[in-house]
Design a protein that fits this description.
about 15% strand; binds cytidine-5'-monophosphate
Amino acid sequence: MTASSSPKSDPKTLAQGKLILALDVDTVERARELVVMLRDHVGMFKIGSQLFTAAGPGLVREIVTSGSRVFLDLKFHDIPNTVAAAGVAATRFGVSIFNVHASGGSEMMRRTADAVANTAIAESLARPSVIAVTVLTSADASVLSSVGLNCEPDQQVTRLALLAAASGMDGVVASPHEVSRIRAAVGAQTFLVVTPGVRPSDSASDDQRRVMTPAQAMTAGADYLVVGRPILSAANPVETARAIVNDMAEVLC
Ligand code: C5P
């Protein structure tokens, strides 16, 4: 079999691997149902503070042990020692990605990246990708100003993406509209950009202000797309996930 015909290079398989379902639900039971229903249709499940607080770490282990990949979206932000220790715990869970706030600073990010890499080597574990949140998409210039930052969100995103890259982070979470700016600022092709704010053309945008379709986000240069409500509230979540993967795959063909 040639590389070009191997299943891994099939555009739909590649696209599926890049689709992350946000498991934004309240209960372990609903999360389990969704994992079973969608594990063959998405590449990863994102567990954020809502589900983690309700369900606890047992669910993370359960999903990883069942063979699915997990993005632990707890956006750690604390003193360097504490975030590095949380990163070690996330590594031991076996998550594929976890994140921290870039505004926690260079030492916090560097010590976390180093602690994760050292733990993975010492304990023969897979090293998760550690990515940084730059500016939350809910924050506009007035929110930044209220916390003493007198700059536009775009400028702050670029500044923090550069800091994250220089501090050993594997990538950032960003709006699809910020991908090209980040790619231009951070040259490394391997720097991951993970984008929420993605909506199929026939979906409601909900509270996401500036959305892109899956194909547009892929064209903009995103590595992974995070999608929640369009799949979670669909009459047929599997069909919706398949349609999103097909849209993404068009760009990868
Ligand atoms: O339902 P929806 O597709 O809007 O879900 C997007 C997910 O991405 C949610 O879990 C949300 O918390 C997360 N997210 C976001 N915007 C950011 C960072 C994370 O929407 N800037």
